[in-house]
């Protein structure tokens, strides 16, 4: 675990000294966009045109942010257009590596380099910043289009529709305001909330994060008692963003990140909803329990120095969800 400083790798953990023990996730640096014809998007940044086999996705199967991108690649039928390289689940002193001694870890199938940082350095030899997944990479200009999963799923949602003919819309105009509101709370208190609890280095920071997390899970349970999905009858990006965290909850966040007031399976609606999304066509193929159990328990020395993997419950993901 570390970061690049002026193009040089430094093995450093997150600094929580200046923030009273709070983990603060840094913003991503690469925020360009793929659009149907390459015109810049209204979100700013450079525009890249949607083309088959021009882009490559670097992911970890362990990472909930990268997982969102994989879900959208599957939901939008992009598998034949955008190929994927999968890092090894252990993120150790060299950061993410392209070792292949774990089932599903492909190595870098484009350049054959050993570390994920080599991809960033290929685009920006003097880069300063964290070496994170996912990366949406442009093979043609050898540039990072984006390393922000929230943006990548929006691009995947519509940019390639003219090529694939898949017009399923997970960010419909009619629901954007509500999606924004839900995403904002879910990001802060659930998606990132589990990390804030797990990486806290003071009791206060942990208490704040874990209470907000369970307040939000109670709130979400209430929404799902009345609605099939977070915004009503329509499945949207808000659901997939939440699902990425929920599917990891009982196996890693509950124990490893001390988010243990409840298990996910204690919430009847949230647990059935998570199973429904898991059972969505093609999605289970993108959920690699072995990668995330290994990743979290091996990669965070400060949290689990002896790398002991807990016994973990066996969950019946294919049990009928009974929703809808
Ligand atoms: N905002 C980013 C966050 C990505 C992120 O933090 N990925 C983690 C893995 S779960 C990572 O690569 N961390 C390495 C590091 O922070 O050095 C996104 O959603 O794409």
Mind explaining what this structure looks like?
With 324 residues, this protein is of the alpha/beta class. The protein folds into 2 domains: 3-164, 3-Layer(aba) Sandwich (Glutaredoxin); 173-286, Glutathione S-transferase Yfyf (Class Pi), Chain A, domain 2, CATH 1.20.1050.10. The protein contains 10 helices and 9 strands. It has helices at 64-75, 117-123, 149-158, 161-164, 176-191, 193-198, 203-226, 237-253, 268-278, 289-299; strands at residues 3-5, 8-10, 33-35, 47-49, 55-59, 83-86, 129-130, 135-138, 143-146. It has a 4-stranded mixed β-sheet, sandwiched between helices. Strand 8 and strand 9 (143-146) form a beta hairpin. Helix 5 (176-191) runs parallel beside helix 8 (237-253) and helix 7 (203-226) crosses helix 9. It is globular and about 50 Å long. The mean pLDDT is 96. The structure holds glutathione (GSH). The site of glutathione (GSH) has 13 residues, from helix 3. Its EC number is 1.8.-.-.
| Gyration radius from CA atoms, angstroms | 19 Å
Bin the helical content. Answer: 25-40%
Largest sheet: 4 strands, mixed
**Distance between the amino and carboxyl termini:** 43 Å
H and E order: EEEEEHEHEEEHHHHHHHH
Structural class: alpha/beta
For the largest sheet, list the strands in their spatial order.
6-5-8-9
Bound ligands, named by name, code or SMILES: glutathione
The total beta strand count reads: 9
How many DSSP helices?
10
Task: Give the overall form.
Answer: globular
